[in-house]
Amino acid sequence: MTTDTVPAGAKDPLDAAARELRARIRYVSARDELTAPDSTINKAAADEPVFVLRARDLVASMTVEYWEFCARNRGTPDDKLERADRQRRAMEAWLEKRLPQPTPAGEMPTVRTAHVERNHPHSVLRSAHPEEPVFAIVASDSVAQEVVEFWAFMAERNGAKPAKVDAALHVARAMAAWTSKRVVGLQERKPRPVLSDGSAGGGGVVLSAHRPRHRMVTLIRCLACDHSEKVGEPPYSEDLLASIAETCEGGCPSCGAQPTMDEATGLARRVLTTVMVEE
Ligand SMILES: [Zn+2]
Questions:
Q1: Ligand 1 (ion): which residues have CB within 5 A?
Q2: Could you give the percent of the chain with pLDDT greater than 90?
Q3: In terms of Cα–Cα distance, which of 69, 51, 54 is closest to 214?
Q4: Is 142 part of any domain?
Q5: How far is 88 from 275, CA to CA, in rounded Å?
Q6: Side by side, which strands form the sheet with 217-222?
Q7: Distance, CA 68 to ligand 1 centroid (Å)?
Q8: Angle, nearest 10°, between helix axes 162-177 and 144-157?
Q9: What average pLDDT does this structure show over 204-231?
Q10: What is the domain range of residue 164?
Q11: Are residues 166 and 266 in the same domain?
């Protein structure tokens, strides 16, 4: 029997990092999402399909950025966009990162409802670090389907397993089938009409707003001179992805700036970054 003299939480470096992050950014954590009565998950209908992004997921922050892009196009007010951007920044600052892994077969339903996310012990919200920044996308959000599709595209592009990508596309389809839609921050949730057989119908508002196109074309951009040029477009083969990655390690083709080594951290500081655009 050993005596545990380590203060609670000190064993987990994420706890310390989370405290620092909390002091800098007022973000919504997995615990907040589960416990706050007015959280996105807690306000969703019990049977509403949901997709929860967690900070550990390598492509989560860019997916939240895409949500902001889509929501802004639909007219979501600035305060809601600012809240999303806070989640995005907190996600970027989160220490632990990895590619999303497929859920073992049979462990969880592919399409998770708000009820499952709230209650299932293996849901994203219940398996994330309690302080981990999260962003919940619910089917009634008018941009839900395209944002989940974007996540699937980015996950695939970054090497996630096909099963994980397929599962996300399945969720996107379930969200498309949920017809009670609203623009976040502009419209209230509409109760779904009850059909004559007593079941909930899929009524509500169907928005015919313009659906923005996904950004699929990759540019490199020089952080020194702002030069940019196209380096890839779909289909992204293994070879193309490898060549884009290699290009990014090098110098700027326009101003000649070269990557440097940061003495303090020992990390290479690139001069080239990638940006995705529509065309
Ligand atoms: Zn340059």
A1: 222, 224-225, 227, 252, 254-255, 257
A2: 48
A3: 69
A4: yes
A5: 17
A6: 228-232, 217-222, 272-277
A7: 29
A8: 170
A9: 71
A10: 14-177
A11: no
